[in-house]
From TrEMBL:
It catalyses: [(1->4)-N-acetyl-beta-D-glucosaminyl](n) + n H2O = chitosan + n acetate. Residues 92-284 form the NodB homology domain. GO terms for biological process: cell wall organization; chitin catabolic process; fungal-type cell wall biogenesis; polysaccharide catabolic process. It is a lipid-anchor; GPI-anchor. Its cofactor is Co(2+). This is chitin deacetylase.
Length: 378
């Protein structure tokens, strides 16, 4: 991978089009007519905290840009853009997935999923794929669905058009994931949920559908701002209680969880049996929506929802990785984080740290509602 570094942006920095990358430049120019005239929002401090304090006071309360961070908007105002996927259509169904991978030592967690014949949707960060290529390959080999979680895990609405493009392009379009894993995903999830119609338009032009969520485990917050493991347990338990009382009897739910560190993966394993007992079905997001062709490349298929719940959890293999081979190795623990499992204990090469919006502080312990409605501050 080191020999290819010059062909990619610097890892964990906001992506820009690499100098002399004529293919990327040509692709970017080809989608210009599809990008609306919507200005970037706020700023992106080095701490990765999204600072919208100078933007929200003058932003119209009508939310003309369908800005999720402001008002949890998932139906674009811009013509021609499909709605975000925020829930799954199948009742009593959990759309199962994990953000921020691949993790340098996720083998125990992936082994657990394999032992339970459970597939999931993995939202991979391009910088992590570059750091941990073998771990990324394992996801495909195990039959999981792979989606994009951008190059450097930034608030996407704060970036310029060319930066938004590069965050997608170098993660997916014939670049990191395609080069390492051998497939080109057609789905993505915005870090922090931060997306508006400008970002959606660029993603759509690159063949990516936007996936959000309606229920947040807040698992990544453990160990920050006095958030304890018991608080995260309570979030899982609240979701289970909602399923048991019929909340998802007509439409299933997508829960936000993370492949971030030892705690988040251990928590997923801890509650898996309870989730399985409560929900009628637990399936990857693509399966729940019958996205049987999840990649640009042909030859790899996901089962339909009916096939999956009938016991056919894997349909076919697919393209071979361009780089290396499968069979990642790592520690037996779910993650390479510190033994305490705190969110701050990740490897220096792990997922980007997350933070709340300036002036809002951390969400209350045990909170189950996703995001923060910045509209309240306007």
């Amino acid at each position: 991978m080191a020999t290819l570094a010059g062909k990619f942006p610097t890892i964990w920095q906001p992506a820009t089009i690499v100098s002399n990358d004529t293919d990327a430049q040509a692709k970017y120019q080809s989608i210009q007519s599809q990008i609306p005239n919507i200005q970037p929002k706020g700023t992106q401090p080095a701490s990765l905290e999204g600072d919208f304090s100078n933007f929200t006071p003058t932003y119209p309360s009508s939310d003309p840009d369908c800005w999720w961070t402001y008002d949890q908007c998932t139906t674009p105002k811009l013509a021609g853009l499909p709605p975000d996927l925020a829930a799954v259509p199948e009742p009593d169904t959990l759309g199962y997935g994990f953000d921020d991978g691949p993790n340098c030592s996720h083998n125990a967690f992936y082994d657990y999923l394999t032992q339970n014949d459970q597939k999931a949707t993995m939202f991979y960060i391009g910088s992590n794929v570059m750091n941990w290529p073998l771990e990324a390959q394992r996801a495909l080999a195990d039959g999981h669905e792979i989606c994009v979680h951008t190059w450097s895990h930034r608030y996407m609405t704060s970036l310029t058009n060319d930066e938004v493009f590069a965050e997608f392009y170098y993660t997916v379009r014939m670049q990191a994931i395609q080069m390492v894993v051998g497939v080109t995903p057609t789905c993505w999830r915005p870090p922090f949920g931060d997306v508006d119609d400008r970002v959606r338009a660029i993603a759509h032009a690159l063949g990516l559908r936007t996936i959000i969520w309606k229920y947040d485990s807040n698992d990544w917050r453990e160990g920050t701002a006095n958030i304890t493991a018991a608080d995260i347990d309570a979030n899982y338990e609240a979701l289970i209680a909602r399923q048991q009382n019929g909340t998802f009897a007509t439409e299933g739910v997508i829960m936000l969880t993370h492949e971030l560190n030892n705690f988040t993966m251990s928590e997923a394993m801890k509650f898996y049996d309870q989730l399985k007992a409560a929900f009628k079905y637990i399936v990857p997001v693509g399966v729940a929506t019958n996205q049987t062709q999840p990649y640009v490349e042909t030859g790899y298929s996901l089962p339909s929802f009916d096939q999956y719940i009938s016991g056919t959890t894997t349909i076919s293999g697919g393209p071979s990785p361009t780089f290396g081979s499968t069979g990642a190795t790592g520690s037996g623990s779910p993650s390479g984080s510190s033994s305490s499992g705190s969110a701050t204990g990740t490897s220096s090469k792990g997922a980007a740290q997350k933070a709340s919006f300036d002036g809002l502080g951390m969400l209350a312990a045990g909170a189950t509602f996703v995001g923060v409605a910045l509209k309240l501050l306007a």
